[in-house]
Amino acid sequence: MDRFIDFNSNPVLGNGIYMADVEAHTFDGTLYLYGTSEGGARIISTKDMKTFTDHGMAVTADDVKWKKTSAVWAPECAYRNGIYYLYYSLPSGECGVSVSKNPYGPFENSVQIDGMTGIDPAVLIDDDGQAYIYYGQCNSALVAKLNADMISIDKESITSTFNAYDYQYHEGISVRKIEGKYYFVYTDTSRHGAMPVCQGYSVSEHPMYGFKYKGVLIDNFGCDPKSWNNHGCIECFNGKWYIFYHCSTDNCCEKRQLFVEELKMDEKGDFSEAEMTSSGMFGEIAATERIPASLACILCGNVRKSFCENAEHKFVLSEIKEGDTAEYKYIAFNGETHFTVKTKSIKDGRVELYVDGKYHGCVMIKKSEEFRSFGSEIKPLFGKHKIELRFFGTPGWGNFDMMERLALSEIVFG
Predict the structure, then answer these.
(1) Do 201 and 186 form a contact (C-beta atoms < 8 A)?
(2) Is 357 exposed, middle or buried (0-12, 13-18, 19+ CB in 10 A)?
(3) How far apart are CA 407 and CA 316, in angstroms?
(4) How far apart are CA 40 and CA 37, in angstroms?
(5) Quick check: 249 and 256 in contact, CB under 8 A?
(6) Which residues contact 95 (CB under 8 A, 6 or more apart)?
(7) At 322, phi and psi to the nearest 5?
(8) Which residues contact 156 (CB under 8 A, 6 or more apart)?
(9) How far apart are CA 371 and CA 339, in angstroms?
(10) Where does the pLDDT of residue 376 fall: very low under 50, low under 70, confident under 90, or very high at 90 and above?
(11) What pTM value is reported for the model?
């Protein structure tokens, strides 16, 4: 795949692929990621969480013959008796399943799951062999027993797992069994005026009821002006727990990128909340890298990440206005004393640098129709830090010339 970024960071697939609603499963030592991409179900795999293989689209709307649909959403995969089952939902609320002999496909023979209405299917095969399928949105968090064929449900078993309001539930179910307990991960509305931008979790000793709300796992609020949704999963791979989630780009609900963070579990089996970062599961980004501006993990104001064909990394920060900010977590320094930004703008302005919330320098920029580099000297920096950029027009008494339509391509420390 074309990453357009030559080091590991978030988004984990670089700027080459939009992928949301990811379910991650380990099959034969390889981690497979199943997600919504380009209106269909896409599959990505990795053996080391550093190098990723794109297996392409597993199921698209054209593969669904039993229902006219514009898209396929939120795929989930389960394995039983030599067959891999790929589950997915349609915008109209029905769910389907396709089968393959391989975890990477091709998946074929799409059929509807009769009696099941609700998006974002998640499947768990319990230790006794009984399979369960979870699904639903808003006021509906449902579970049913899957029959032995894995493509039909026991309609009499359909159960509401919990009251959606009390559990901050919105959609995006994912289920894991850990040390005998059932972990129910889902889009959580407990923050930001009930916006569904968190992933939270509840735990039970039974797969169908008795869940206890435990809290937030990740919060993607601030990733984009259109932060609106968060659907992913948790998975243990090579001895470490990770949380997979997505972030919006380009002020758009549909253009979402895959992010990953490492999760920490305590001795009681509880997870601590992970922080949304630019460096992701890799911990830090070396200041010696030419850092794409689009790696900002938190944006404030009008600024957003946008596709730009002429930019080296294919994404820039665009539509920047006076007072907008962009944060990068985390950058590792080793004595760098120079700060450079690559911008284009219809007006002069300045970019202020803050390190862990404290002012650390400023770069004056000139209007330019093409991307140009502007830099300044700064005091030496050492160690791992949060970097924040703040954008302003030119200073001066009575000068109200606001910044607008500024674009930032990359930042460089040296």
Answers:
(1) yes
(2) exposed
(3) 7
(4) 5
(5) yes
(6) 87, 88, 89, 112, 113, 116, 117, 118, 119, 121, 135
(7) -50, 125
(8) none
(9) 16
(10) very high
(11) 0.96
For the stretch 29-34, contacts whose Cβ atoms lie closer than 8 Å and that sit 24 or more positions apart, written own/partner, are 30/103, 31/235, 31/237, 32/77, 32/103, 32/104, 33/244, 33/258, 34/58, 34/75, 34/76, 34/77, 34/86
Tens-place pLDDT, residues 245-295: 999 999 999 999 999 999 999 999 999 999 999 999 999 999 999 999 999
> Can you tell me whether residue 280 is helix, strand or coil?
helix
What are the Cα distances from residue 35, in Å, to 55, 175, 258, 313, 343?
12, 16, 9, 23, 33
Give the angle subtended at the CA of 163 by the CAs of 162 and 168, to the nearest 5°.
100
Spatial separation of the C-alpha atoms in residues 61 and 130, rounded to whole Å? 30
Pairs from 311-314 (Cβ < 8 Å, separation ≥ 24): 311/371, 311/409, 312/4, 312/409, 312/410, 313/4, 313/5, 313/15, 313/409, 313/410, 314/2, 314/4, 314/15, 314/16
Q: Choose among 43, 40, 13, 19: nearest CA to 31.
A: 43
SS3 187: strand
Q: How far apart (Å, rounded) are the C-alpha atoms in residues 42 and 54?
A: 8
Q: Collect all residues with Cβ–Cβ distance below 8 Å to 362 and sequence separation of at least 6.
A: 350, 351, 352, 353, 376
Interacting residues of 158 by C-beta distance below 8 A, sequence separation 6+: 115, 142, 143, 144
* 314/326 Cα distance (integer angstroms): 18
Q: How far apart are CA 74 and CA 58, in angstroms?
A: 12
Placement of tokens 């589950």 in the chain: 87
Eight-state DSSP code of residue 274: P
Confidence at residue 288, expressed as pLDDT on a 0 to 100 scale: 95
Helix, strand and coil in the chain, % to nearest 5 = 0, 55, 40
Tell me the β-bridge partners of 248: 256
